[in-house]
Write a structure and sequence with these properties.
This is Polyisoprenoid-binding protein. It holds the Pfam family YceI. It comes from Coraliomargarita sinensis. This protein is 15% helix and 52% strand. The protein is built from two helices and eleven strands. The longest helix has 21 residues. The protein is globular, with a radius of gyration of 22 Å.
Length: 193
């Protein structure tokens, strides 16, 4: 009887150990801004004007066993906007656009990941805050891969796209010459911490 109880105990402990080991460890990654980009385009009369933000940071919490459990947070500094025109970039800081003196940061925090787009492609829902206004947005995200980088760094790569209606955040400057829809493309290379 004593031997049977010990055997059952050993089996339960072994089972618990297997279960504990099977649980995924969430990996933390920091965006490598030197190898990442935040780009956008918007209609101007009959063509499109493009730009980017050069100063941003962010972190990803990645569950490799179930990527739908992953999370991402990012911050973009509005004054870093670059459209290849100093005059236009200065105007974008003003109140009819970003109002950067009062709201110098744009932030995104994911709330849900789903595999609606297929293997390694996700719908990532999150809260985007611009000018102090928070709206839910959906990003189409593709996992580009995991792998070794230089000097032993372990990397993850991602691409995200979405289209935003800028007026939802109170950005109304330039209408009607400047369109309301902004196409956004984000490419991320992140380093495991």
């Amino acid at each position: 009887m004593k031997t049977s109880l010990l055997s059952i105990g050993a089996i339960l402990l072994a089972s618990f150990g297997i279960t504990a080991n099977a649980q995924a460890e969430v990996e933390s990654y920091k965006i490598d801004t030197a190898h990442s980009s935040v780009k956008f385009s918007i209609r101007h009369f009959v063509a499109k004007t493009t730009g980017n933000f050069s100063d941003f940071e962010g972190t990803l919490k990645i569950d490799r066993d179930d990527l739908t459990n992953s999370k991402v947070e990012a911050t973009i500094k509005i004054p870093s906007v670059d459209t290849d025109s100093d005059k236009r970039d200065a105007h974008l800081q003003e109140d009819d656009y970003f109002g950067a003196d009062k709201h110098p940061l744009m932030t995104f925090k994911s709330t849900k990941w789903s595999e609606a787009l297929g293997e390694n492609k996700f719908k990532v829902v999150g809260d985007l805050t611009i000018r102090g206004v928070t709206k839910e947005v959906v990003l189409d995200v593709e996992l580009l891969g995991f792998g070794e980088g230089m000097r032993g760094a372990y990397l993850s790569g991602w691409e995200a796209t979405t289209t935003l209606d800028r007026t939802e955040w109170g950005i109304t400057g330039g209408q009607p010459a400047v369109g309301d829809e902004v196409d956004v493309t984000i490419n991320i290379e992140a380093i495991r911490q």
